[in-house]
Amino acid sequence: MPIVLEAEPAPLAFDPARTALIIIDMQRDFLEPGGFGESLGNDVSLLAAAVPPARALLAAAREAGLLVVHTREGHEPDLSDAPPAKRERGAPTVRIGEPGPMGRILIRGEPGHDIIPALSPLDGEPVIDKPGKGAFYATGLGDLLRAGAVETLLICGVTTEVCVHTTTREANDRGYRCVVVGDACASYNPAFHAAGLAMITAQGGIFGWVSNASAVIAALA
Ligand code: TIU
């Protein structure tokens, strides 16, 4: 049965049975003090603000029986899935695959690549390992969502203007209704966060909708 969610630019009716929550890249290396993100000079406390809303949203999604999908950005240890154009970015000591404070930077299996404990996936919840910023590129996410007959995505995570935005744009072009849960997203740059959310809802919702965790939780209750 469709339920109505308060959102911008307009309320959205959606069917929870055909809705997935996608939590983007809530990884230790991006969020925790002492991780890769902080080593680049970022203020990781800005990302911490998204954790309580994301945790509440995750609990409500599980309770309502939504498909819950977690993603992680990272690469194979041999870097075979990291294109040179991505590997070359940044100062040589903080490049992908180099030793970082929580293991090799953005490498699968390293401690920093893990999802933060507050948002740990449950057994059986799919975890999509992605080599790009978007969660559809070179992953099984499209097949997974098709198998679940999903039509609406609730999207949150970090960072708003990078992996959340890229995934939302990919999903929008694939025909999904995308709701970005704004307070459960964050950026190292507050202006980019605000602009990222504003870009979703501009022009009548050019990429989708923006809501917040308490509105989603109320709609699912
Ligand atoms: N997950 C994600 O957004 N990856 C990034 O590299 N984000 C930055 O903002 N750097």
From TrEMBL:
Q: Which of UniProt's keywords are assigned here?
A: Hydrolase
Recorded GO molecular functions are: hydrolase activity
Q: Where is the composition biased (Basic and acidic residues)?
A: 73-90
Note whether rRNA-binding occurs among the keywords: no
Return the InterPro entries for the record: Isochorismatase-like_dom (IPR000868), Isochorismatase-like_hydrls (IPR050272), Isochorismatase-like_sf (IPR036380)
The lineage's top-level taxon is Bacteria
Q: What is this protein called?
A: Cysteine hydrolase
Q: Name one Pfam family in it.
A: Isochorismatase
Ranges for the region named Disordered are 73-95
Q: Which residues form the Isochorismatase-like domain?
A: 19-205
